[in-house]
Amino acid sequence: MDLVKIAGPAHYLPGRVNIGVLIGEGQAAFIDTGLDEGAARKAVQALEQAHLRLAAVINTHAHADHCGGNAFVRKRTGAPIYAPPVEAALIQHTEFEPFFLFGAAPFKAIDSKWFHATPTPVAHILDARITLCGVELEVIPAAGHSMNQVAILTPEVAFLADALMAPDILERYPIQYCYDVLAHRATLERLAGLRRDWYVGAHFPPTQDLQSLLDANRANLERTAAAVLDALTPSAS
Q1: Which strands make up the sheet holding 135-141, listed edge to edge?
Q2: In angstroms, rounded to a whole number, what is the distance separating the alpha carbons of residues 60 and 33?
Q3: Distance from C-alpha of 233 to C-alpha of 87, rounded to nearest angstrom
Q4: N or C: which end of the chain has fewer CB within 10 A?
Q5: Reported pTM
Q6: Mapped to the 3 state alphabet, what secondary structure does 147-169 carry?
Q7: Does residue 207 come out as left (phi exceeding 0), alpha (psi in the -120 to 50 range) or beta?
Q8: For the segment 182-211, what is each residue's pLDDT rounded down to a tens digit?
């Protein structure tokens, strides 16, 4: 796993789930930790090879592919975890994710690392502005995909977590998981007002074309809504 510079202090580690990395003052902070120990181990090793000390972990939300590496990172580095309100509670009580998916105690197939991360303590609740490793960050709401997901902004780069998906993913998985459709719509409108040089998601590489991403995600949401309404409309026959 190679550390890739985006702009300014913002870097990332490409993978199945991209891990954001903020670098400053000889230290680094992760934005999410990936699905499991394997992903987290590679991320920590990348920092060690760059002679950087991990000072903090920011979790954008509590889904397992974003916080599943927390336990290894915390054990290996001792770095404190920052998370948004509500999401912090879920990171500390990860049994709720499979419960939300099933509505009851989960059956074995969904009670796995894909939906049930190892719980980890959250040391700090994220404020709207925070400074880590000498880097000033803005934390903005990006709920919809999850209860209280956030996006992390540097002056040059917006780390969007799962607020947006790449068009190829939307084509492959046309019905996207969405906790709150109205909140997701509001997030899309909020993101349309962003002005950054680069935009990076958990599942797509850095891009400067925010508009195409917004258009694809809006269209996907409208298609899904239309399909649901069609399925619920009684047949004339």
Answers
A1: 129-132, 135-141, 150-153, 157-159, 198-201, 204-207
A2: 10
A3: 35
A4: C
A5: 0.95
A6: CCCEEEECCCEEECCCCCCCHHH
A7: beta
A8: 999 999 999 999 999 999 999 999 999 999
- How far, in Å, are 2, 145, 171, 182, 207 from residue 214 at the CA level? 28, 14, 15, 16, 12
Written as six digits, the tokens of 110 are: 């969904």
Query: Helices 70-77 and 37-49 sit at what angle, rounded to 10 degrees?
Result: 40
Beta strands at 157-159 and 198-201: parallel, antiparallel or unpaired? parallel
Query: Could you tell me the domains of the chain?
Result: 4-164+195-206 (3.60.15.10)
Per residue in 205-221, pLDDT tens? 999 999 999 999 999 99
Contact 54, 29 (CB under 8 A): yes
Query: How many whole angstroms separate alpha carbon 154 and alpha carbon 135?
Result: 8
